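agent: user wants the full assembly modeled, not chains individually. Plan: 1) parse entity lines 2) check alphabet per entity 3) run joint structure prediction 4) return tokens. Steps 1-2 passed, two entities, 391 residues total. Proceeding.
--- entities ---
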Amino acid sequence: MTGLHRGSSDVRTLSEPVQLSIPVQSDLILLARLTAATVASRAGFDVEQIDDLRLAVDELCVLVACGSSSGRFNLTFATNGDAVEVICALDVSEEDGASTDDHGERELSVRILDALVDEHGEEYDDKRQRGWLRKRKVRHEAL
Amino acid sequence: MTPSLRDPQQVRRSFMEYADSGDAPLRNQLVEEHLGLAHQLARRFTNRGEPYEDLVQVASMSLVKSVDRFEPDRGVEFSTFATRTIIGELKRHFRDKGWAIRAPRRIQELYLAVRPAIETLTQELGRPPTVVEIADSVGATEESVLESLEAGQRYRTASIDAPDRQHGSIAVRLGQVDAGFAGTDDFMVLALSMADLPEREQNIIKLRFVDGLTQSEIAAQVGLSQMHVSRLLATSLAHLRAAFTEDS
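--- prediction returned ---
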């Protein structure tokens, strides 16, 4: 991971985004979770927020996969002010087109993302599925 | 998914009525109407070594708390509030449950130190600690703490475990690697070694270590004797162990 620099108060923001490309396999999503957790930790997020972000990244990948079991997730992790942003894109071929039929699962994913992050969105077309999320750092009052 | 059969406005009105009256039958009705949400969220946390029924119980108890604590005039939908509360409770359940998975000793030991450190630091600081603060407290690196926290939550993304066209489900191919997160290198070695095993052996390993079935239960499911299952497990594990030895 490159592009990290240490700022003030133990906050190390990203000077440029981190990109990760992984096959669509549930077992490999741990790499996305670990990357998100590392970026969030460097941005000064606390453990609860990092836990939320891990879950949210999981859910974002589920949402973007839309039932696809091949292809690659192309993930981008960035810091923007006091927020961590994650973009997940998946190129889809005709023979492995996404299934957007499972509205129940999608609705649950959206509901979970609503609860875990500040903003998120998804877009789909014939060739690409893409989702993004933004989670801002909670500022705690000093004791 | 239909967590509540009524529209959000109706739900909000019911909660306002409950806030005013404290009516027990209305409370029960609100809980019952949202039980579907508790079940669905519990399902998201399955395959991490905890029985689904236990997770439903945790989620349902949290739902009851959510109904009692929800303030309808805050402008947030109940389902959003309840989702946040239930997920928080499920995360705590896994964190507090102790160590029940196979992971490298250093990760187990570190997690056992990290867990109480989080509690202590939260008390001391009056907020959840950062990873740097935990690392300083337990004398470990930030990366190790992140790794132990990942393993501690026993993640398993079940929802994209659609059957792989060539090899059967990904979960079957890769067994419980994710749950027992053992570092990326170990993970890759194990993943490749699992792929070398015949499909039947992969399935037996999954049933034993992912689904937690006993050898007798597996025997009944796959139509073999318990002794045969035992032998296949021993052979398969020896194969995986050998892969690690070769790698190191």
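agent: reporting back. Strands of chain A lie at 18-23, 72-80, 83-91, 119-124, 128-136. Chain A has three helices and five strands.
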